[in-house]
Amino acid sequence: MSSKTKVAGEIIKDWVSLDLYSKYNYKTACEDCTHFDFENETCTFGFPTTPHLKKNQINDLAMTGKMAFCRAMEID
Ligand code: SF4
Question: Which atom number of ligand 1 is nearest to the Cα of residue 52?
Fold first, then answer.
């Protein structure tokens, strides 16, 4: 099974360089997205935000070397 194979109900996560992520402070989280409601930590599209919250992305990256990117993210 390739690392990109999706199991039902599982979100795909991509490999990320922790060094580069830390160095360049990439905008990858819901908190960086125009569709994020900070008050309720929800998405205006109704997508689940948990995998894309900054604290969870950083935790995933530290634990697995991967993180989940939202393909609908928009930055103003
Ligand atoms: S579009 Fe994606 S990144 Fe933006 S708030 Fe919704 S779930 Fe988060």
Answer: 8
Domain span holding position 47: 14-67
Locate the ligand 1 atom nearest the alpha carbon of residue 29 and give its number.
Answer: 3
- Closest CA relative to residue 54, chosen from 74, 76, 70: 70
The amino acid present at 2, given as its one-letter code, is S
Ligand 1 pocket test target in 52, 54, 69, 74 with most atoms within 8 Å of CB = 52
Number of independent structural domains in the chain: 1
pLDDT in tens, the chain (76 residues): 445 566 677 889 999 998 999 899 899 999 999 999 999 999 999 999 999 999 999 999 999 999 999 999 999 8
